Amino acid sequence: MPARRVVLLGAGGAGSAVAHGLLSLGAEELLVCDIDPDRAHGLTTSLRERHGPDRAATVQREELGDELRRADGLINATPAGMRANPAPPLEPDLLHERLWVAEVVYRPLETELLTHARQLGCRTLDGGGMAVFQAALSFELFTGRRPDRERMLRHFATLAEDDTTALAAEREGR
Questions:
Q1: pLDDT band of 84, cuts 50, 70, 90
Q2: How far apart are CA 117 and CA 99, in angstroms?
Q3: Which of 14, 35, 111, 167 is packed most tightly, with the most Cβ within 10 A?
């Protein structure tokens, strides 16, 4: 999956972790957008200091359309799309079929953003793996024991499926 140019929505804790991880793993250029321009600028400054001056830039919301047309990937690291705030983090018509789209949101696993991206033919990644692997690492750090990550993923998928079923029933008024 190409990662020459990636747009990141969200410069908070999750966005910061994702940003450093992406650049450490070889993404060439990361474009950071946040509703708080100062926070986006702060993360961009930190990324440039650690990973090189040409590898990160701040993007304004009104520039997203142009930047996404030239991007390989999009990551949502904002609360937009979560059950309490289900609206997508951007206008779905800004997506295109050449993008891969990833979510940090894990409740629900199937967000509006991912649904629309899949309809376009984008490769997608939900936030379930982020939740499970973060929990697994925490468990290992606290206990010194390595958990069965595959089992955790299966269990999480079952819980997420139950959550999706309950949400659908809630919407239907059952």
A1: confident
A2: 8
A3: 111
